[in-house]
Write a structure and sequence with these properties.
CATH architecture: 3-Layer(aba) Sandwich
Number of domains: 1
CATH class: Alpha Beta
Number of strands: 9
Strand content: 15-25%
Mean pLDDT: 88
Shape: globular
Distance between the termini: 37 Å
Largest sheet: 7 strands, mixed
CATH topology: Rossmann fold
Length: about 250
Amino acid sequence: MDQEGMIHLKATGKGLDDSDLAVHQDEIINTVVKYVQDSMRKELGFKEVYIPANSTPEAPVKANVFVSRNYESCKKLLIFVAVSRGLYPGLWSRGLVLHAGVKSGSMLEYFRKAIDEGYGIIVANPNKNVIVMRDGKQRLQIPGSSSPEEHMDSLWDSYVARSAARRVYFLGYSYGGVLIKYLLQSRGDQLMRRNGAIALIESSHRIEDGDSQSVKSILAHRTMYWESNDQLFQTKLDGDAPHRTGC
C-alpha cells in the first residue's frame, strides 16, 4: 500500500488490474481488513463488543461491533452504518477498497476526524447475521443479529441506549440508509429525543406512504444526502433523488 492508500502487489510492486482482482480479491480484502481493524484498535483505541451483548470473545456465535473508548461517556455519539455483501466493520465497500484504495474505501479518515471533534463512535456490523460452523455445512443464526434490522435494534438497545450521549448522529452508506430509516421507526420515541443529525451517502432508502410524519420530518430537516457526480461539492441534486430520499 502506498502513501495514498492504493494497493500494490508485494511481489511486483505494480497496481492491481482485473486479472489480479479475479485471482487475489479475497486475499487482498482480508489483508486490508486486518490493517484497518488493527489501526482502529492500536492507533485509535477502539475495542470490540458483541451481539448478543453478554458474549465473550471465545463465544462461537456472535457479531462483533467496534466502539471507541469514550462511547459510554461522550456527549455526542456517531454511529457508522455500511452494508454490502462480504463487508467488514471499518470499510465502506469492497469495491471502493479494490478500485480506489484504502484511503477512500475505509472509514479510518472519518474516525480520526470524529475523534478529533470529540465524538464517541460505534461501528455497526449489520452484515454479520449467520455463523458457518467448521464443518462448512451448519449455518447458525446469530441471536440479536439474525438480520440487518435485528442487528440495528440490538445495537441500539445494548449500546446506544446505555450511552450518556445527549445527541446521537448517524453516517450511513448505501443500504445503511435503509437501516437508519428503519431504526427511526423501530426505536422512534427514544431516538427522536436524542437525534442530532443524519448524513447519508449514496443511500438506497425511499420515502414510502406508510412512513410516519416524524420520520419524514427528520429526513427532510435533519438529514443530508450526498451522491457521487461531476458537480462541485454541495451542488443541489437534480433528478428524483430529493423526492425519492425525502432529504
